[in-house]
TrEMBL record:
Coiled coil: none annotated. GO terms for biological process: hormone biosynthetic process; thyroid hormone metabolic process. This is Iodothyronine deiodinase. The gene is Dio3. The keyword Oxidoreductase applies. One of its GO terms (molecular function) is thyroxine 5'-deiodinase activity. Responsible for the deiodination of T4 (3,5,3',5'-tetraiodothyronine). Keywords: Oxidoreductase, Selenocysteine, Thyroid hormones biosynthesis. InterPro entries: Iodothyronine_deiodinase (IPR000643). Belongs to the iodothyronine deiodinase family.
Length: 133
């Protein structure tokens, strides 16, 4: 839950230069599977899309200002982006501009913040073109 709050703060800070989207994928530590001792929620493995949608509502509560999408039951988004089970991306004009490491170890909000700070600086610094005649 702390990671979700950090993500929401990041999204609020950079709302002027980026759109943010959360994508809820399969549950990393389902209560009826590989249970984590520090799991914030008791969510069983999703058996159908309705299960996944209900679980995604918990994420929505943690970041109410951020749009939320839900992966399909065949985990197409997770497979396409190698999200297993958390990952940060910046996508611009259908091109991956930033790809964070796989979570939980590679999920680094601070690294994404640095990337966005640098991107914002480039946007605010007009490029200078020198033409010699």
């Amino acid at each position: 839950m702390a990671r979700l709050r950090s993500f929401q703060r990041l999204a609020a800070h950079f709302v002027d230069i980026a759109d943010f989207l959360l994508v809820y994928i399969e549950e990393a530590h389902p209560s009826d599977g590989w249970v984590s001792s520090d799991a914030a929620y008791n969510i069983p493995k999703h058996q159908c899309l309705q299960d996944r949608l209900r679980a995604a509502q918990l994420m929505r509560e943690g970041a109410p200002d951020c749009p939320l999408a839900v992966d399909t039951m065949d985990n197409a988004s997770s497979a396409a982006y190698g999200a297993y089970f958390e990952r940060l991306y910046v996508i611009q004009e259908e091109k991956v501009m930033y790809q964070g490491g796989r979570g939980p170890e590679g999920y680094k909000i601070s690294e994404l913040r640095t990337w966005l700070d640098q991107y914002k600086s480039r946007l605010q610094s007009p490029s200078t073109v020198v033409i010699q005649v």
